[in-house]
Amino acid sequence: MANTTWSRRHIISLIDLVAEEYETILKTAASFREVLSRRTKKVPALQGKVVANMFFEPSTRTRSSFELAAKRLSADILNFSPGTSSLTKGETILDTAKTYLAMGADIMVIRHKQAGVPLTIAKAMDDLGAGVSVLNAGDGQHEHPSQALLDLFTICSLLDSKDPRLELLKGKKIAIVGDILHSRVARSNIWSLTAAGAEVHLAGPPTLLPKLFSEMVEDDRAKLLKLDWQLEPALKNADFVMTLRLQKERMNQNLLPSLQEYHRLYGITRDRLELCRSGVQILHPGPVNRGVEISSDLMDDPQLSLISQQVTNGVAVRMALLYLIGSTKS
Ligand code: NCD
């Protein structure tokens, strides 16, 4: 196990994560990846701890990934489904959290369609002196830290499988393409990738690309961030292309003429990848709208697509996050 000096109780956002913390996460995830390659894929690191998986919004991979990660660490896991919970009887989210606290939850993994819910619960738990850790599993359009961290781990592992580390990304170009306006994945990735010294080039239709990003990044990382309404400048010489789902459930107005038109202008296809550096690799957080943000054949091409590796690495990265915050409890 990596020797750590981790002190953060909650992981809500990546905005203020420092290089040492990223390195600790990468190293810890690499050691758990090794555990997951063994015959017995389980360690007693969180034995006796309770992880509450509180997903107030639909999820396949993130929810299952956290569940498996907790199980591989020998934690006890409470799974919450809003449709069959007391939320339907009018219980508030905070009361749900307090109920889990009363059952002895040590870590709450929270996803909610509203930005700010994980932070609110973390603050409430701190005010109660509960010693509970909160991990943001995606809040509205705000952030999705564990996704960005597994993306970082996947990219760094590709560059050096034995020793994935931040410096490998220095000077690399990453294009993030698509519905950036509604994407919490993009918002978290901007912090992690620029912290690593990568150039991040955002591209999407004007209706789906907020100008605000250039204002968000205020420190010297600002020069690493570029925005474009056209795809070509973003793809030119890119080392990695991260394509994002059109988040139709978050669009409350007609922001696009049609899906075909979107694919014609912004869809990632084999031809378009010619603009990138040779050896370019594609990421997508999933779920994918096949044939919309990415052509179907490309998505399934193991030479070009890192999508399955992202999912596989997600378990090791989430084990690392649960382990690190789980070890801060006094
Ligand atoms: C993302 C999410 O929920 O924000 N998916 C995920 O967690 N793997 C992206 C998306 O829904 O498009």
How would you characterize the overall build of this protein?
There is one protein chain. The strands form 2 sheets. Strands 7-6-5-8-9 form a 5-stranded parallel sheet. The protein has a 4-stranded parallel sheet with strand order 2-1-3-4, with helices on both faces. Helices cover 38% and strands 14% of the residues. The protein is of the alpha/beta class. The protein folds into 2 domains: 19-143 and 311-326, Aspartate/ornithine carbamoyltransferase (Rossmann fold, 3-Layer(aba) Sandwich), CATH 3.40.50; 145-309, Aspartate/ornithine carbamoyltransferase (Rossmann fold, 3-Layer(aba) Sandwich). α2 crosses α12 (307-326), α5 crosses α6 and α5 packs across α12 (307-326). It has helices at residues 19-36, 61-72, 93-102, 117-127, 145-159, 184-195, 212-216, 231-235, 259-266, 270-273, 296-299, 307-326; strands at residues 50-55, 76-80, 107-112, 133-139, 173-177, 199-203, 225-228, 240-243, 281-283. β6, α7 (212-216) and β7 (225-228) form a beta-alpha-beta unit. It is globular. It is built from 12 helices and 9 strands. N-carbamoyl-L-aspartate (NCD) binds next to α2 and α6.
